[in-house]
Amino acid sequence: MEALWHHLLEVELRVSPQEHPILLSEPPLNPKPTREKHTELLFETFDVPGLFLAVQGVLSMLSLARTESVVVDIGEGVCNVQAAYLAHLLPHTVTQLDVTGGDLTTFFMQLLTAKGR
């Protein structure tokens, strides 16, 4: 992760991490040890001046100027459904589904192939 963040910040974005606070999105119910590891790495290795961790679904909700929502977050290998209220995740609502973006891609490719397209 350190090498990835170094490449992203210093090579791709060409910014000094010491001069910019970081907003880091995380999946719902991200384990505390993972959160602590990322926080430690950003503060101690990259010397960032500030860090804010936010749940991905809550950020999606805020991007639409909503204060409450149900978010379906479908990625290549994971799908989460979660509810948020007043910009806070409701942990008891988080559900992980077995159908992922990869499954949907495969399904639609099969449909297109079956129809000869």
From TrEMBL:
Pfam family, one: Actin
Name of the protein in question: Uncharacterized protein
Organism of origin: Arcella intermedia
